[in-house]
Amino acid sequence: IPQDAYIIEAKDKYLIPGLTDMHVHIWDEDYLMHFLANGVTTIRNMWGESEHLLWRQEIRTGKRFGPELYTTGPILEGENPAWPPGSRVITTVDQALNMVRQNKNDGYDFIKVYHTLTNKDVYDAIIDEAALQDIRVVGHPAIVTDSMWTIMEYAYATNVASIEHIDWYLNCVWQMPFGNDVSILEEFFSEDIDSLLTARLLDLQIQAGAWSCPTLAVVKNYLSPTELEEAKLRPYVKYVKKRDIDDWVQTIYNRPSLPFDLLNEYRKNIAAKKMVKAMHDRGVKLLIGTDCTNPFVVWGFSVNEELQLFVEAGLTPFEVLTIATKNAAEFMQAEHIFGTIAEGLRADLILLNSNPLENIANVQDHAGVMARGVWLPDAYLKEQLSPIIRVIPSPVQFAATDTGETAKKRLTIYNDGLSELVIDSIYTDLPEFQVIAPLEKIEAKYFRQVTISFTPESAGEFNGSVTFFTNYNNNPLCTINLSGTGIDPTGVSSADNQLPTEYALGQNYPNPFNPLTNIKFALPKSEFVTVTIYNMLGQKIHTLLGRRMNAGYHEVEFSGLNLSSGVYYYQVTAGEFRDVKKMILLR
User: Fold this and answer.
1) I want to staple 319 with a disulfide (CB 3.0 to 4.6 A). Which of 107, 302, 315, 428 is the partner?
2) C-beta neighbour count of 60 within 10 angstroms
3) Among positive and negative, which fits the CA dihedral 241, 243, 246, 250?
C-alpha cells in the first residue's frame, strides 16, 4: 500500500460489490448520478442511441462521471410497432441483416428485439446475422403465434440471451393467448401457478442457457389516476424532473383502467414472486433490473425496491445480492472485470454502515460508494443530488414609480440541482416591496417565476432585499437586493429628477440576454404607450405594454423564456413618436 494512499475508516462497516441494474432506460444524462448515489455502479441500457455510445466512451475515459454503461442498440420492431417513431421498424430480411450489421459496427453491446417482430423470416434473419456478427440478442419473445407456450419455445430455440419481464412466464404456464385484454389480468396475479408446467418451462430455459430479468418494480408501481397525487409525495420523486413526472402522469391516464381492488391485488403480484422463487430454485439464471423510466420507477432508487421484492419472493439477502453483483458480471461475460471483491478487478464497491445480510434494506445505509476506484463519501453523493437555487435578475431595479402606484418585476427562480427545491418562506425587509403569490417548491432542473411589487408611498429612493429560505443545504438563504425610486406625479423637486424634454428609446439591457432584459424609454408628456415585440421576419409575437403613462423615464421587463435564440425587435409607440431597436436572445 503506498504511503500516501487515502485511508477510508471501515471499522464495524460492511463492504459489498457495487450493485447493477440490468434493465434501464435512460435518456437524460443527469440521472446517471442517481445510480451512483444508490450504489449502482453498472447498468444495462435497453434502448440505445448514439448518445449512449458517447456517454459510455466518456465514462470509460473519465470525461464523464457515471456507472459503467452497457447498451443495446435501438429497439427492433415489426410492422405494427409499439414505440414509433423512435424504434426501428424491420419488415424485410434485407432490413434485418443491415440493421444487425449496423448495430455491430456502431459498437452496441446487444441487439434488442421486441414482441412486435411477428414475421418469422425477419426474426430468424436477425438471430442468424447476430450470431455471425458475434453480438447477443436480448429482449422480448417474438409473437409468431397466439400460443404463449410456442412463443417461449421459439425464444429458447433462437438463443435469446435474456428474456425481459416476468409476465411472459406467467401467461405461458396459464396457457393464455398473448394480448392486453384487461379482462384476463385477474389471472395474472392468481396465487396458483402450475408447478409441473412451470418446471417444464424453466427446464427448457435452462437447457437453452437463457437468462431472465423479471422487472418486478414495474408491476409494483402500476398506478391508477386516482393515486397520482399521493404517488408524487413519495420520497424519491423529489429527484425526478417535472418533464418526466408530467410524462408519467400522461402514461397513467392513457392506460386501461382497472377496478381498485383488482389493481391492488395485481400490484401484490403473488404469482410473479412465486415464479421468481421457482426460477431461482430450479436454477434459472436471474438478473436484477427495474425497467426504470416507467411511471414512478425512479432511476437508481428503484433498485432498492427490486431487491426487496426478490426477498419478498423468498430469496435470502445473500442470494439477492449475488444476483445483483456476481450474476450480472457473469451475464456480461465480465467476471474478470467486476461483480466480486478480488484483487485486479475494477474497484466498484459500496461501504455500508449496517449488515445487508440481516436486512436487504441496509444496502441503502451507505458510508460511501467507490466507482472505478474513485471514493464518493455519502455526504458528497447527497450534495450532488441536492437542490441549487439561482435567481434572475439579480439585483432588481424598478423604474421610477409614481407614489401610490405599483410597479412589478418578475423574478425567475431556477433549481439547477437534481432534487426538489423547497421554498419554506420568502421575506422582504421593506414594506414597499412585496411578494405576490409566493412559491412553495420547484422541481429538479426546472424554474418558476414569482412577482415582486414596488409601491412607494413617498418620493425618494428605496433600497431593500428579498430573501428566499430553502432546503438548499450549502446555502439555505438566498438574498436578492431590490431598489426603486418613488416620484411625486405632480412635479419634481430637484434638477436630477427633471422630466425628459424629448421622446427617447434606449437600448435594452442586458443585450444579448437570457431570458430577461429591460427596455427603457422617455416621455416628455403623458401618452398612450405601446411596446411591441417582433421576430426577425417582422411578425408580431407579443404586446408587452399598452396603456397611458405619465411623463417621465420608464422601464419595462421582457422575458424570452418561451422563445428560441435569435434576433428580435422591440418597438415603442407614444402619440406620433415611434422607434424600433434590435435585441438578441441567446439561450
Assistant:
1) 315
2) 13
3) negative
